[in-house]
User: Fold this.
Amino acid sequence: MSPNFRIAFRFLTAKKRAMLMSLSCTVLGVGLFIVTQATTSGFEEFFVKTLLGTDGAMRIEDRIQDTLRSMEVAGSPDFQIRQREGVKYIEGVEEPQVIMDTVRSFANVRGVSAVLRGNVQVSSSFKTEDAQVFGIKLEDHRFVSELERKITTPEGLGKFQESAGSALVGRVLADRLQLTVNESIVINVRGESRRYVVAAIYETGVRDIDKTRIYIDLAEARSLLRKPTGATFLQISLHDPKRARQEAAHMEEVLRHSVRPWQEREKEWLSVFRALSVSSAITVTVFTLIASLAMFNTLAMIVLEKTKDIAILRSMGYERRDITRIFLWQAAIVLAIGAIVGGIFGAAVSWGVSLVPLPINTLFKTEHFIVALSPWHFVQAITTAVVMVMIASLVPARRAARLEPGDIVRGTAQ
Assistant:
């Protein structure tokens, strides 16, 4: 143990009440920073996981066609210059099977499924609602969504596989139509009506999806929507969803189709979560600011009370940098204890918060707080505390270092 550290510890313990105040604010600042970031990240990760399990990591939607303009060269009507103006998007995927075979050759692709979508009206014996039909091949769609795990009825997907005249209905829509399994619904498209049997009821947790989507077999959807070929979009799942942007750019160049990664598809909600994270971090940093002010006050009081001790140390040969280190060591001691205790406090509170009931059934569905602790949250919290407290400690430390033994003895030290 260095002499500077020992002296710093003795100075600090002489002001126990002030030290405890600085320490408690540091603990609260570090701990609450971790808690707020863990809860915000938890809800964001849950939201992303829900959407990836429902809509996949990417969607191939429209074919890209270059648009060209021809210009005649003056004096040469037979010679033309073609200039590229931009691109035109042709709605839908005209040859889904060809695109699917190509997509499966990408190493990061886990699965791909063709989806045919159409707006319909669905009726039960109770009422009529607007909805959307999603035509899928179940054997393909299993690899790009968690639909099978979202079934809430004991029958599962068995009946849906066996009968082309069956449908999967979202929980919210089923409740609005007062439907149960094995009951019939009538789907109406452009004046044509067809009857389907509810094979199972699913619940993704995303209200907008559970309120509007009805899944039926792809071949049946082609017949119902009168679209014998093509697909509305191809849904893709990836082994590493974080690489969706890079994969989308590569696929778009190869396939000449619009490819939307989940980061772009849900960028509005992701921006909201990031704004909440920054806002909560700024709010909680107030505790760290109070800790830095308390540390400044503690060290300033020690400088005033220990001027004679500082004179003795300087007379013994301690240089200005040694005096500075003694006072910075005091801040470091408080920070080290505050970071360790604050980290433990933050982890414990985060665990306790995850047990708190919180029924939510709007943007997504959950029954309790979602918490996602990350080492990065601890790094951010401790770094914020270190920067603010050490900056606040520099002023009294430098003031102590400027004291001269002669001035202290004469009583003229400033």
In short: The chain has 15 helices and twelve strands. Residues 94-231 form one domain. The chain has two domains: 3-53+269-410, 94-231. The two ends are 31 Å apart (CA to CA).
